[in-house]
Design brief:
By secondary structure, the protein is an alpha+beta fold. It has eight helices and four strands. Strands 1-2-4-3 form a four-stranded antiparallel sheet, sandwiched between helices. The two termini are 30 Å apart.
Length: 245
């Protein structure tokens, strides 16, 4: 599988200053899997959200709504989330269906990319190939919110179906860049969508809104091994087709 390391383009590559800043933010952003306990100041969280509110959406519908936790609000959700995941794992209980269907299957290059980033994570934290107990323990960190002091839940209106989720995805991409620009680390998590009934009940989300996903955020624990690797990106020739006639 061809892949490339992330490299930020700069003014030396002919980029104007604004494009160079964007390139650096994209190259430096990563899915943070270990956090310092420090709370992010409320005003900084609000600034991040105000920046992201400029995200594009179809017909300017802006369908996203966001629930943000801090302090004891994070701890109550962390306990409920983790306890449910542990109980289901112990009993063999299947998770309920998500509000939006998960992918049916990853095949070919998509499966290769999924495996590569999975083994990058496992290698970084010392999980050996075939060690199901250790990999299961690492997977449960999702439900501990990776130790983050804050969590977010993202929803969109049921009536907007998949297009509401698409717009929310655009918002999420913008939010991650806004966070990166402010020195805030973040990881977007499908694990929230695996427990939609719990999330709906815990946050009082009505049935006319669908849970897209969640995220954990805060300040990165820079020396944690899970934060040491960076996923690679496919070269342009794998994802771009030029049509010039």
């Amino acid at each position: 599988m061809a892949s490339t390391e992330r490299v930020a383009l700069t003014g030396d590559d002919g980029l104007p200053p604004e494009a160079a800043v964007l390139s650096r933010l994209l190259a430096d952003r990563f899915s943070c899997r270990s956090y310092l306990p420090d709370q992010v100041p409320q005003e900084k969280i609000e600034l991040m959200l105000r920046i992201a509110q400029n995200a594009a959406s179809w017909c300017n519908s802006q369908p996203w709504q966001v629930h943000v936790t801090s302090g004891e609000g994070t701890e109550r959700f962390r306990r409920a989330f983790f306890e449910r995941a542990v109980a289901d794992a112990a009993s063999g209980q299947k998770t309920p269906p998500p509000d939006f269907d998960f992918p049916e299957i990853y095949r070919g290059i998509y499966k290769e990319r999924q495996r590569e980033v999975g083994w990058q994570l496992y290698d970084s934290v010392g999980v050996a190939f075939g060690d199901r107990e250790a990999s299961g323990k690492q997977a449960l960190e999702n439900f501990r919110l990776f130790g983050a002091p804050h969590a977010m839940v993202f929803t969109s209106p049921r009536d907007l179906c998949d297009y509401g989720a698409i717009d929310t995805g655009i918002y999420l991409g913008t939010l991650m860049l806004a966070a990166q620009s402010l020195g805030i680390a973040m990881i977007v998590q499908a694990a929230f969508a695996a427990y939609c009934p719990l999330v709906h009940e815990h946050f009082g989300i009505p049935e006319d809104r669908l849970v897209v996903c969640g995220a954990s955020f805060g300040y990165a624990a820079a020396d944690h091994p899970a934060n040491a690797f960076r996923s690679r990106r496919a070269p342009l020739e794998e994802v771009v087709s030029w049509v010039d006639r």
